[in-house]
């Protein structure tokens, strides 16, 4: 009977030591994940205004090029081939600028979605970190654990 109680107590101490070690490893991993997510979030937030400005510039360029193309097309109605080719070239430039603006807008929207996703992921990690801190505190307050096991974190 005494052997069973002793081995049971020793197994509980080993389990708590193992739990403490696992808890410390997960705590460090979650903390590293939080740092990584914060960096990614900061990068994404910084890129959004740049992409929006780039999209605005492309839209302005598109409008100017469309106007030039329209003016050139009006001149090309006189039937000269050179003017018609120039009008076509300007129309293609306007089309490219419009596509650039659209691409930049889409990229900015994608980044906004990424910011939302990263924010949600970060919230989850902070909640998990809080849970781990509570578990850590309960292990330290548990009288069956040794003080050396609790201080390994």
TrEMBL record:
<protein>
    <submittedName>
        <fullName>Uncharacterized protein</fullName>
    </submittedName>
</protein>
<feature type="compositionally biased region" description="Polar residues">
    <location>
        <begin position="67"/>
        <end position="77"/>
    </location>
</feature>
<feature type="region of interest" description="Disordered">
    <location>
        <begin position="57"/>
        <end position="115"/>
    </location>
</feature>
<feature type="compositionally biased region" description="Basic and acidic residues">
    <location>
        <begin position="85"/>
        <end position="115"/>
    </location>
</feature>
<feature type="compositionally biased region" description="Polar residues">
    <location>
        <begin position="141"/>
        <end position="153"/>
    </location>
</feature>
<feature type="region of interest" description="Disordered">
    <location>
        <begin position="133"/>
        <end position="153"/>
    </location>
</feature>
């Amino acid at each position: 009977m005494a052997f069973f109680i002793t081995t049971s107590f020793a197994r509980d101490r080993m389990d708590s030591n193992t739990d403490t070690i696992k808890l410390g490893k997960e705590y460090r991993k979650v903390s590293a994940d939080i740092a990584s997510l914060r960096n990614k979030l900061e990068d994404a937030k910084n890129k959004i205004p740049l992409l929006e400005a780039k999209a605005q510039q492309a839209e302005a360029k598109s409008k100017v090029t469309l106007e030039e193309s329209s003016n050139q097309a009006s001149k090309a109605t006189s039937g000269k081939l050179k003017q018609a080719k120039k009008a076509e070239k300007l129309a293609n430039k306007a089309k490219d600028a419009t596509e650039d603006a659209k691409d930049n807008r889409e990229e900015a929207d994608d980044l906004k979605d990424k910011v939302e996703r990263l924010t949600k992921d970060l919230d989850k990690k902070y909640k998990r970190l809080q849970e781990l801190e509570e578990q850590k505190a309960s292990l330290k307050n548990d009288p069956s654990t040794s003080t050396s096991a609790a201080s390994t974190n």
